[in-house]
Amino acid sequence: DVKVTQSSRYLVKRTGEKVFLECVQDMDHENMFWYRQDPGLGLRLIYFSYDVKMKEKGDIPEGYSVSREKKERFSLILESASTNQTSMYLCASSYPTSGSSYNEQFFGPGTRLTVL
Amino acid sequence: GDSVTQMEGPVTLSEEAFLTINCTYTATGYPSLFWYVQYPGEGLQLLLKATKADDKGSNKGFEATYRKETTSFHLEKGSVQVSDSAVYFCALSDQGGKLIFGQGTELSVKP
């Protein structure tokens, strides 16, 4: 079974703090993704990575950065947390997409972050 | 850009009722279409998918047909159970292979 784990289920931080969210997958997937999930907005892509040390901006990268030093680990960093970053954060991983062949994304359980 | 629109929730049904959750999309090219499900306290998991027009995806009694003429991918189940209570997301894969999600529809099934 594919397993995607996230470092915390719940996290409470203060405005201005630097926050690290960690994601680890055990299936040797090349692709990894960070989303945030908000009521009424669905999932929005923050950043993704196709390989080690590679990163691409998603739809809402402002206020976030990422790090992928090892294939199995993809970290999301909030440089200076703000209250509007209070959300559920979901990590996912997949094999690469090739032509019309789509490979399923596997999701972690999520981290509910509250910024006070 | 590409987008997905789902019917708003929450949807509340009695056990054994028929379920339809509407999903329409806007996309360039020919995307693949998906339904993901999120059970309480868990991450998303793939429920079913369809990769070309007229394909029908099915799993666990759920079905959805890729309708190119109406740009739709409605989710249906003939008889829902309490265990189907979850949030359902319609999604498409864009030309870069990324997923674009609808806003999600919460389903609550009462015994």
Task: Name its key features.
heterodimer, A: 116 residues, mainly beta, seven-stranded mixed beta sheet, four-stranded antiparallel beta sheet, 11 strands, B: 111 residues, six-stranded mixed beta sheet, 50% strand
Gist of the model:
The complex is a heterodimer of chains A (116) and B (111). Chain A is 0% helix and 52% strand.
Description of the structure:
The complex is a heterodimer of chains A (116) and B (111). Chain A is mainly β and 116 residues long. Chain A has no helices and eleven strands. Chain A has strands at residues 4-6, 10-13, 19-25, 31-38, 42-49, 56-57, 64-70, 73-78, 87-94, 106-107, 111-115. In chain A, strands 2, 4, 5, 6, 9, 10 and 11 form a seven-stranded mixed β-sheet that branches. A four-stranded antiparallel β-sheet of chain A has the order 1-3-8-7, with no helix packed on it. In chain A, a hairpin with a 6-residue loop joins strand 5 and strand 6 (56-57). Chain B is mostly beta strands and 111 residues long. Chain B is built from no helices and twelve strands. Chain B has strands spanning 3-6, 11-14, 19-21, 23-26, 33-38, 44-50, 56-59, 62-65, 75-77, 86-93, 99-101, 105-110. In chain B, strand 10 and strand 11 form a beta hairpin. In chain B, 38% of the residues are buried. The interface between A and B is medium-sized, with 24 and 21 residues.
